[in-house]
Amino acid sequence: MKILFADDEKSLQKLMSLELPRLGHEVTVCPDGLTAVAALERNTYDCILVDLDMPGLNGIQVIGKAKELSPETEAIVLTGKSSTESAISALRFGAFDYLTKPCRLVELQTLLDRVADKRELTRKYRAVKTRLEKLEGKSNLIGDSTSMQQVGRLISKVAPTNSTVLIRGETGTGKELVARALHDQSHRVEMPFVAVNCGALPENLIESELFGHRKGSFTGAEDTRIGLFEVANGGTLFLDEIGELPKSLQAKLLRVLETGEIRRVGDNDSMKIDVRIVCATHRDVEQMVAEGDFREDLMFRINTFEIHLPPLRERTEDIPLLAEHLCRRFWPNVPMTQTIFSTDAIRALKSHDWPGNVRELANVVEHATILCEEPPIEPDHLPRRFGRSSGDGAIGAGGAAAGKPVLKAIGPLSLRELEMQAIYQALERHEGNKPQAAEELGVSLKTLYNKLNQASSMDKSA
Ligand SMILES: Nc1ncnc2c1ncn2[C@@H]1O[C@H](COP(=O)(O)OP(=O)(O)OP(=O)(O)O)[C@@H](O)[C@H]1O
């Protein structure tokens, strides 16, 4: 690290100018506070090491200046008096830690290692955050239709509150995107947004996944682990597919929502947490309550505020904007003025019934960007179920009017297309119930999720 050392003790100045480079750091040594501030004005340091009692400006004033000039610079104070009071006030001023003189070199080394670790973690966190933002894009909900405008209005009303929100809608309608928008528009935006799919977790692990566990609390619990509620502390926890949560967990979730406290598996004490809960489901929760599969008290607790996402077939006017938006994920360099879809291609897209909603559209768009070398995308670039030429009677074929998905195959389909067709048809037959669709398809629920998410993750890796 690049370190600034400021102390009026000559022997220490000499020691540090020798020892800090030996520990692998680059050091600038200053004999007093004023010189230190002058150095801070010229250069940026990773860490400053300052004596509290110096002639001219004292250590706290130097820290204040360092934080003003470069908030990310860490500060360690050296205090000669072993005065906890002055050390505490230094911590209040944003110092990382303090050392009491005379300190041992090994203590200093440990502390500097901690500073370096913190800086590396911050850097990694930034890199991951930037990458995630690039991959996920902003929580940009595309859609100008009346129903999507209403969704946008509801989001901006409820986002700043702490209310639990239930997002309802068919698979692929953008429920997770809405959950992220709620988080992004709330005061929690700088804190974590954690999404968990209640349907994709094995039943015996959900509790520990959500609440964490203590080492040895069950076979396989080799370490103490914090759960997703704790990871999301201060932020938002998105419980996707809440309808799939086993009943035993429903009771526990209800208790957490009512008390604001969680207890790790195997722990006796509970702890307070501050997490905003957003849930989503494609299931008819009222029906599940009537059939005894979902607790009525939990339903009332989570549906304080509901946002309904309309299926894509009911807002076909959003398709051109959405298709273009999704396309630009694959073609980020295409100029904004360029027409991306021909009129015929848009007509073909609009006549489809979209049982897989926006996720299916993303899939189709991806397919088209592979086939099409240069925009605009024509019907020929769409998967075969859209028909290969406009006006041949195959596109749409009354599907939308009949309220049924159009999965008409013209010519041979690729394996992936066939697979997706089978998945969407199964989902349709089971009214979006993924566990039932997975069972019918003979695949695990996890595999079904993976297949459905393939389009999204392909977008992300593009
Ligand atoms: N209005 C929208 N604007 C832009 N992209 C959207 C929109 N709606 C959905 N998407 C995209 O469609 C894909 C599926 O969306 P998302 O995962 O939010 O759906 P979901 O309703 O949560 O699905 P599931 O119920 O299967 O979990 C994502 O890639 C998402 O970015």
UniProtKB/TrEMBL annotation:
Keyword set for this entry? ATP-binding, DNA-binding, Nucleotide-binding, Phosphoprotein, Transcription, Transcription regulation
* Residues recorded with modification 4-aspartylphosphate: 51
Q: Does the keyword DNA-binding apply?
A: yes
Q: Which GO terms describe its molecular function?
A: ATP binding; sequence-specific DNA binding
Q: Which residues form the Response regulatory domain?
A: 2-116
Among SUPFAM superfamilies, the record links this protein to: CheY-like (SSF52172), Homeodomain-like (SSF46689), P-loop containing nucleoside triphosphate hydrolases (SSF52540)
GO BP annotation list: phosphorelay signal transduction system; regulation of DNA-templated transcription
Limits of the Sigma-54 factor interaction domain:
141-370
Q: Does the keyword Plastid apply?
A: no
One short Pfam name that applies is: HTH_8
Q: Which CDD domains match?
A: AAA (cd00009), REC (cd00156)
Q: What is this protein called?
A: Transcriptional regulatory protein ZraR
Q: What is the lineage of its organism?
A: Bacteria, Pseudomonadati, Planctomycetota, Planctomycetia, Pirellulales
